[in-house]
Amino acid sequence: MKRFASTLCFAHGCFLLALAACGGDEAVSGQPCPFFAPVEDAPSAEVCAVAVEVESDFWRAAGSSRQRHLSDEAAAEERPGRFVVTTSTGTPTLKAHWLSNAALERWAPQAAQTGTWPAAVRSHAQLHPGVETVVAFGEARLIDAGALGPVYAYRWVPEPGAPLAADQVACAVFEPSHDAVAASLPFTNVFFTPKAGQDTSECFLPALKVDLFRPEYELYNAGVSFGRVRLYNAQQFAQAEATFAFGWQDVLVLDEAPFDLTTVVSGVVTGTRQGQLSHVNIRSAARGTPNCFVRSPLARLAAWKDRLVRFACTDTGLEVREATPDEANAFWASFKKPPQDLPPYRAEPLPLVDLLALETTSPEQRAAAVSAYGAKGTNLATLNQRIAQEVTLPGFLVPISAYLEHVSRAAVSVRLASKTVKGTVATALPEVLADAEFKASAKRRNDVLTAFRRAIAQTPCSPALIEAVRAQILARGPAELMWRFRSSSNAEDILGFNGAGLYTSESGCLADEVDGDGQGPSRCDADKKREHTVCAALRTVWASVWNFRAFEERDFSGIPHERVGMGVLVNLRSKNERSNAVAFSGNPNNPADNRIFVDSQIGTLEVVAPEPGTWPESVRLTSAPQGTQIERVRRSSALPNGEVMSDAELTALVAAMQSVLAVFPRDAQASPGRSVIFDTEWKVLEDGRLIIKQIRPYLR
């Protein structure tokens, strides 16, 4: 459902009049709010209202004088409709009307002439001189609210900087405002809905206690699974994750959407909203595990704590029922994926190579490049060689062979159940992977993997490699430029194993590497209080092969760990970008939906791994002959009243995406019943340029 609002000004300040059709039974039972395409040129945000309590019976006595019914002609039409009202002082102008889409075209012109809809606007202008602009926008749908019947509700929200807070607005404001609104609406049962702190008990107006601005349910990935329900608040979740208290046979019910998950689980329910393209959801989609948002999940699912259940997130809501051990065991037997092949890595020493110089002409050359330099770097090199350089960043690739040389020198000692294994990371790996306790114990796996990462981070880099990196950087600019070192393994960005968010990126500064003092701040970025050497950046990326979440996801997906090699993609770092975005060339959860899905955030705020309680702007884009169709699904938590990406930027993104899809080779083919779309990452730089930083195939 969409929110719509009017800004009304009084002598003591301006307030936002936010309205929404609201209902009780549908949302309370877990049914999702209906979502509609937004009105043209009108911003919108998803809203679901739940009528939970009638504050007084006043509406029955006095409300009827304020109610109008749809005309007989309109009543024959469907209830959903569109409207946009734009007005300046005393001059209302009707752009559309509240009738159904079918009735809109034939009825709206007459309504515009008679001025039926803007009655509320005109009344406010008369009651409160000085109103300069009043805008109402959105799309309404009446939902049955039980005994009350259909309900139409609105609320007051103070604008930033208003002299009075919402709870200071008096009945003298609420009452005439309600009269004007209710008199103009073609709906019965019009209610004021007080915000927290607003006391309307003495006001002469009908009121409902509702929550207009939070949905009850939101589906991210549909699916069915079995597991034991684990309920955690944020503090409990952190403790449970640190002690490996849950795993792939558990369903997590969390009061906050996590930054990420370190292990595979059977399903996820969160009490704060997620991004559709977040790492948590993309990996849920890749595994086929259910993932959804439910308001107040700890309270709603308390009765299921630690019980074995069949658990489903569906289009219509969350479904939970008790499961038998036989059902669960049958599901778990088919849950983990069978072993799958990886592109074999090339162990012989190879040179560093510019993105534009890598050989990518034929499918055979591209396959060889993945074996030598990893998939992420090969994909980006393949793309950069085929598109305008204005939308790319310069960069080069460090081969997988550099990682193999490093781990062959990384001394490690790890304790297993019956023995201690000493050697290097390379020589210890086979013995570790064969150990029964390592396979069975998440804590033991974490301890060993931590030792691997520490050994890699403490081993000096090859002087020859640092000199080669130095030459690549200086060929592109001064030593004081910051570069971004990113994973490019043969176990990510490949069809069938997306690997999003499993490995770690780091910034590196050549000037920090060669200054010899080891002291911060960074010579490439004074905002960074410590040095960011090239060697440290390389070691961080290499060590992330053995991140716990990477190991667990590979293990679940049947990826052979001993065949994983890590190349490094090095790109010039951008700073002070306006926004960053993830764009999928289709809906990752619905093969029939080929709109471009875009999640974005301002600056460098995380899109795919957001902080708990935050979420990105979500937009759906369709290229049409008459121009790009933009559907703004949800506003960013960082810009609740603004837009992360403008219409012009989104239109440019569609054009750029089409250019990318037209030239990027499709070497891998999907199996029957599956399709291949592309997962891309973009930035809008400080100067307004749109830059692509990553592309990878995604099997849906």
Concise description?
This protein is an alpha+beta fold.
Topology:
Blueprint: E1 4-10, E2 13-22, H1 25-28, E3 50-54, H2 58-62, H3 72-75, E4 81-88, E5 91-94, H4 101-114, H5 119-127, E6 133-140, E7 151-158, H6 171-184, E8 190-192, E9 208-211, E10 217-221, E11 223-232, H7 234-242, E12 250-254, E13 267-270, H8 279-287, E14 291-294, H9 297-300, E15 308-313, E16 318-322, H10 325-335, E17 353-354, H11 363-373, H12 375-384, E18 395-398, H13 400-407, E19 411-415, E20 420-424, H14 425-434, H15 436-440, H16 442-458, H17 463-474, E21 482-489, E22 506-509, H18 510-514, H19 534-543, H20 548-556, E23 566-572, E24 579-584, E25 596-602, E26 617-624, E27 627-634, H21 647-663, E28 676-684, E29 690-699
Parallel strand pairs: 7-8, 11-12, 12-13, 13-14
Antiparallel strand pairs: 1-2, 2-7, 3-9, 4-5, 4-6, 10-14, 11-15, 15-16, 17-18, 18-23, 19-20, 21-22, 21-23, 24-25, 24-28, 25-26, 26-27, 28-29
Please explain how this structure is put together.
It is a single chain. The protein has about 700 residues and is α+β, with helices and mostly antiparallel strands. It is built from 21 helices and 29 strands. The strands form seven sheets. It has a seven-stranded mixed β-sheet with strand order 10-14-13-12-11-15-16. The protein has a six-stranded antiparallel β-sheet with strand order 27-26-25-24-28-29. It starts with a strand and ends with a strand. About 45% of the residues are buried.
